């Protein structure tokens, strides 16, 4: 059995011991989108929603969530993130808000979960702030698109 497993010899869940792994520069990027009615997207893009700067609040929520990933995802290591960037872009042709999050760390384990959490929480925040206008919005296609660093590299 590998030393890097979430199970002990009895099959019980444990946090992987990464203490012997070298600290290296690691980064991960995740994306996702929120699909909505064209009128909702136009309101967001124009800053016309009563709740204010929806994209700014969603960006901040994503950054804050990345920093707290270990509190949200069982067995996830708490990491001292060195960078978190969350970008949101309106795409009127597809009637979606595209979300991209990139997280960085110098440490013994990667930041894939932090990037995915940032996108997820930014999407949920966007949904929450717009649900009164468009309750049929859909959060979709959240996925890891890039990672670098560590033993496996890119």
UniProtKB/TrEMBL annotation:
InterPro entries: MoaC, MoaC_bact/euk, MoaC_sf, MoCo_biosynth_MoaA/MoaC, Mopterin_CF_biosynth-C_dom. Keywords: Lyase, Molybdenum cofactor biosynthesis. The active site is at residue 128. Its EC number is 4.6.1.17. Residues 15-150 form the Molybdopterin cofactor biosynthesis C (MoaC) domain. GO terms for molecular function: cyclic pyranopterin monophosphate synthase activity. Coiled coil: none annotated. The keyword Lyase applies. Pfam families: MoaC. Pathway: Cofactor biosynthesis; molybdopterin biosynthesis. Substrate binds at residues 75-77, 113-114. It catalyses: (8S)-3',8-cyclo-7,8-dihydroguanosine 5'-triphosphate = cyclic pyranopterin phosphate + diphosphate. Belongs to the MoaC family. Homohexamer; trimer of dimers. PANTHER family: CYCLIC PYRANOPTERIN MONOPHOSPHATE SYNTHASE, MOLYBDOPTERIN COFACTOR SYNTHESIS PROTEIN A. Catalyzes the conversion of (8S)-3',8-cyclo-7,8-dihydroguanosine 5'-triphosphate to cyclic pyranopterin monophosphate (cPMP). This is Cyclic pyranopterin monophosphate synthase. It comes from Phaeospirillum tilakii.
